[in-house]
């Protein structure tokens, strides 16, 4: 897919899924803005983008919980490139601990980063995207944990469930601005050493493998391809089929 000179903002692009998304857009010719609050990680992603020798990358340090920093991110992106075409809301945090031990500060940090941050970025970016003649796209990274759970995931599950609902609400509100808004819900995406995974880890997936960050990156490119602008308000589950598999204990 060709994203030549499209301006793409990826939050949380310093590590894992966000890093892969940023690099894949660069490989497709995009100008990628790395929005992250980790200087070292963001600059490592920037180095990978430069190695593609196709796209272009810049780093704008941003804490997406902070309204002023989000406003600065969008303004500085527009000042540098003259437009914003695509926003990928990927940044997020988790606190997997017993609900009896989960503090109010833990809860607020997860919700403020994952859900509030997603809304702040979408709102600020849409104000620029809507000025494009052809509109643009927003993709929010949710999680299969919005629909199924393990123990001790209350804050994270609530934030990701909120993102799926926010996604379809935004898609309706932004329809007149020609902005598609979709979510991707990843399942098990291995961001560590893939070689350390066991056969049983792969075989429990109907796809016969655990996912990689590049799987999510390709889904982002698909949803933001202008040829696919008939798709909006949707949540694309990318989990190797796990949420469709019935599991019984024997």
Automatic annotation (TrEMBL):
Annotated keywords: Oxidoreductase
PROSITE patterns attached to this UniProt entry: ADH_SHORT
Superkingdom classification of source: Bacteria
InterPro entries xrefs: NAD(P)-bd_dom_sf (IPR036291), Sc_DH/Rdtase_CS (IPR020904), SDR_fam (IPR002347)
Alphabetized PANTHER family for the sequence: DEHYDROGENASES, SHORT CHAIN, ESTRADIOL 17-BETA-DEHYDROGENASE 8-RELATED
NCBIfam families: PRK07231.1
Family per similarity comment: Belongs to the short-chain dehydrogenases/reductases (SDR) family.
Protein name, as recorded: SDR family oxidoreductase
Annotated organism of origin: Aquibacillus rhizosphaerae
């Amino acid at each position: 897919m060709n994203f030549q000179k499209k301006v793409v903002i990826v939050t949380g692009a310093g590590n894992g899924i966000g890093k892969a998304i940023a690099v894949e857009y660069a490989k497709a010719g995009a100008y990628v803005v790395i929005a992250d609050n980790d200087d070292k990680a963001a600059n490592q992603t920037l180095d990978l983008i430069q190695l593609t020798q196709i796209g272009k990358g810049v780093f704008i340090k941003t804490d997406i919980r902070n309204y002023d920093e989000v406003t600065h991110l969008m303004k500085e992106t527009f000042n540098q490139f003259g437009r914003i075409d695509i926003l990928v809301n990927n940044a997020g945090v988790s606190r997997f601990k017993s609900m009896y031990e989960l503090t109010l500060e833990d809860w607020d940090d997860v919700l403020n980063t994952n859900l509030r941050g997603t809304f702040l970025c979408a709102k600020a970016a849409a104000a620029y995207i809507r000025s494009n003649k052809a509109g643009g796209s927003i993709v929010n990274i949710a999680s299969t944990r919005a629909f199924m759970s393990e123990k001790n995931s209350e804050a994270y599950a609530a934030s990701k469930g909120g993102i799926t609902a926010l996604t379809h609400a935004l898609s309706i509100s932004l329809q007149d601005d020609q902005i598609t808004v979709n979510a991707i819900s990843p399942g098990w995406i291995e961001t560590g050493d893939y070689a350390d995974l066991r056969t049983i880890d792969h075989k429990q997936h109907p796809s016969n493998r655990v996912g990689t960050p590049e799987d999510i990156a390709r889904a982002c490119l698909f949803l933001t391809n202008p040829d696919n602008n008939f798709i909006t308000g949707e949540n694309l589950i990318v989990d190797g089929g796990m949420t469709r598999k019935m599991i019984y204990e024997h």
